[in-house]
Amino acid sequence: MAKIKSIYICKDCGYESPKWTGKCPSCESWNSFSEDAIEKKPNKITAHAREVIPLKLTNAKEQRIPLKMDEINRVLGGGIMEGSLILLTGEPGIGKSTLTLQICDQLTGGTAKVLYISGEESQNQIASRAVRLKIDSEKISFLAETNLEAIIATVQKEKPDFLVIDSIQVMQSSDMTSFAGSVGQIRYAAEKFMEYAKKNNVPTILIGHVTKEGNLAGPRVLEHLVDTVLYIEGDRYKNFRILRAQKNRFGSTDEIGIFEMAGDGLREVKNPSAEFLEGKRPDAVGSAITITMEGTRPILVEVQALSNVTPFGFPKRTSTGFDVNRAQLLISVLQKYARINLSNQDIFVNVVGGMRLKDPACDLGVLMAIASSFLQKTIPSDVCFIGEVGLSGEVRNVSQMEKRIKEAKKLGFKKIITPKECKTIVDAVKGL
Ligand code: TYD
Ligand code: MG
């Protein structure tokens, strides 16, 4: 008989301790331990120990189920891998349930049997979403349930080809005494679904919420357990949604999928550069175009900056879609080498369209947007900037230059400023 034992788990990093502690010895966060009951299995290894025959790797076949939407396929590395466990996360209301239902529909396009288990919404709510998405809900079986044992029993009987759990945070096992949403419950449920998915070769999507800080509400240990962690990002009040793989056992984590939330669900954005640049005013100051590489795709984005005299002694610098520390560094370089005095200026940086720029090649574009706003000079709308800015004011070369230039030319940009044209930021600013 399995024994139930009490332990304490850090909800930030999953560290386990037999006693409660105020500060986690592993990740050093305070007050993050909560009590959980774990099932302790009797040690029967010796009784079960027997020889197993190893298999040849050459006999294994890669089985992927490609979806209709290429934007999802790209992020997954070519489709959903059979028997894989995918964790789909994002803020509440960002579109996780919507995207998952669309994936279900694309799978049922064949003969796949889909079982959608929701512990958050009723059958009517899911059905009305399906109507909005113009999905034939006849093909999708639905179950409103949060009890883990009941779900596993149903799944074993129904034998679906594809399973969805919406969401993992509300699942609760009757084997455990702790409440739903606790670290132990989440991990236990995820382990059970993992076991089922692997044993029966059933691809499974677990939906999970993230907290405001962007952490998974629950243990990070879930991220280690699953095969793929997908994030949906974007501003829920704006239309663009970006799907990103944070971890992927079966593909790259560099690729992104871009969608637009429409009245009938998430729509693929096939030409993101053109859409991100739509609405750019040609005469605006403080606006520059740069090119970021997202995996294998170059994407043109508009960076906006606003520089204004600070009403307080200490200037404020904020940034959306670009690392604020990197922005501070660019401001410093601009001050020192281009001799632009920004010490009494509040500076705000914004990347249009909800993209997050991590590519260093975007440095020059951000820097030029700031300079343009301060100097009140417009950058012509057929100019774009590529280059990393170094600490001594030099503009450095970046990877995949040809691809970036090709994309810019395709969109009609006449002047592409690269490290070849301007060796330092002084050259770049002079061109304004
Ligand atoms: P939802 O998938 O329920 O979010 P999550 O599961 O991540 O909490 O999406 C909720 C939002 O999406 C909601 O604000 C309404 C919007 N939405 C649309 O704009 N169009 C649609 O077709 C659907 C289904 C939702
Ligand atoms: Mg939902």
Strand order of the largest sheet: 8-7-9-10-6-11-12-13-14
Radius of gyration computed on alpha carbons: 25 Å
CATH architecture of the largest domain: 3-Layer(aba) Sandwich
| CATH topology value of the largest domain | Rossmann fold
Mean pLDDT: 88
Oligomer: single chain
List the total number of helices: 12
Question: Could you describe the 3D structure shown?
Answer:
The chain is an alpha/beta fold. The chain folds into 3 domains: 3-40; 65-269, Rossmann fold (3-Layer(aba) Sandwich); 274-430, 2-Layer Sandwich (Ribosomal Protein S5, domain 2). The protein has 12 helices and 22 strands. The protein has a 9-stranded mixed beta sheet with strand order 8-7-9-10-6-11-12-13-14, sandwiched between helices. The chain has a 4-stranded mixed beta sheet with strand order 15-16-18-17. Helix 9 crosses helix 10 (363-375). The model has no long low-confidence stretch (mean pLDDT 88). Bound molecules: thymidine-5'-diphosphate and magnesium ion. The site of magnesium ion has 4 residues, from helix 3.
List keywords for this structure.
single chain; 432 residues; alpha/beta; Rossmann fold; Ribosomal Protein S5, domain 2; 3 domains; nine-stranded mixed β-sheet; four-stranded mixed β-sheet; 27% strand; binds thymidine-5'-diphosphate; binds magnesium ion
